[in-house]
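Example A, followed by Example B.
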Amino acid sequence: MSVSFIRRIASPKKALTTVALAAATAGMALTAAPAQAATTSGSSAQAIAHQMIPDAAQFSAFSKIVEHESGWNPSATNSSSGAYGLVQALPGSKMSAAGADWKTNPATQIKWGLDYMNSRYGSPAKAWSFWQANGWY
């Protein structure tokens, strides 16, 4: 397929359809990944958390914990303990209380983490104080 041919296609949807058709004709398979499987960057997860935690001090404390625990990687897994996700829930399946998509959705992990910090410590800031004193929360 020539570059000039692709440039003449009017819309990206048409281009994708044309590429898929060409791939199918050539015997190649194109598979669609689930929408959430698209890599969620740490900055995207931070933006979600910032929307969910409008108080600057509480967001800062939550952010510090998550940075230490997972580096803002929603699929972070501790090879020793099996703790999982942004907030390193142990077991990770505990986060299912916040949503069935806990393995892939940073918003679900953030919601669960906030609920955990609020119920166990009173707030993310108090959880961060505990983390600083103990190296875990």
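Example B, a separate protein, is given below in the same form.
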Amino acid sequence: MRYSLLSILANGLSGKKGWKPAWRDASPKPAYDVVIIGGGGHGLATAYYLAKEHCIRNVAVIEKGYIGSGNAGRNTTIIRSNYLLPGNEPFYEWSMKLWEGLEQELNYNAMVSQRGVLNLYHSDAQRDAYARRGNAMRLNGVDAELLDADGVKAMYPFLDFANARFPIQGGLLQRRGGTARHDAVVWGYARGADRLGVDIIQNCEVTGFIREGEAIVGVETTRGPIRAGKVGMAVAGNTSRVAAMAGLRLPIESHVLQAFVSEGLKPLIDGVVTFGAGHFYISQSDKGGLVFGGDIDGYNSYAQRGNLPVIEDVCEGGMALMPCIGRLRLLRHWGGIMDMSMDGSPIIDTTPVPGLYLNAGWCYGGFKATPASGWCFAHLIARDEPHTVGAAFRLDRFRTGHLIDEKGVGAQPNLH
């Protein structure tokens, strides 16, 4: 059914008995044209755009747990397109444009809130770097404003501007950035894909691949074999493990990234703020909790949990930025498994194995990229050629040297 004011009124008057499930909990068929491994935002968006934009509707999305149980449900909900380098800027700006029309596109409230993203700077050198970034953004048609300390103080007067070590000198503002509700994004894409005929198969873990010669022609799962004309991988932190089943070794490491939410407060932060003197970012949810995070844990792991040293480091960054949260109590924290590429930028490409397609290496940028990632991955699978805005995200760039090193820290995933 289509959601509307009339449908809400009608179901309210009828005792809410007319609502139908948002999507089918499908059972696997013997074969599909395309099988997408991974029922997070990227996998579901890929299936949706395959069906809508390319009319390929004999598609299955298979997920080892329930949809959105991985990184899609374990992030800090930030969306933005304030990137510097040519490979990233057009891609994330396309994603931002898709975000801006997503709720109307899916007929679903994904709670997209363009409340602004402010990156603070604390030195002359950092100001110059943000000026360069802002100019690159504006040359690509992306909004950017470089604020001085007074401009930041007008927005967030409670920040510690006179911090002896990290005085706030200003910030780079993208007003079109903001947040979206991660669960709602998953549910919206699942509902949209289901309406177009896509099968969403939960509790179905991939245990291997079916081969004919060198080509992959399906997957072995805990619910039986499923054959496919093409297989796409969108499994985030489990990319290396699933790729190993196909005999691939990828330039990816898996690390845990923690996120945190505090007890509820009255409205305090109406946007997203990042601390330029350390890795700390913060926003406020509609329930009043402060949502924040920082660096990845410094070791490889497949565990969806974190450790105390990172909690301490993140809280130190928060206190340096805004001491007013010192007595605030943490409500909970969680961890997602990041698939860290060696240059900090993603991979959307075919693989050396015929029939297998790769969507991986999202590092910190996976959630904000969800719409464009699905769009570009669907284009690649349907046409066997990269989409123009994702053409730089080639797997072989690590061999040819065409890296997209956005943060300039080289092949050290723990520093991205």
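On Example B: DSSP finds eleven helices and 18 strands in the chain.
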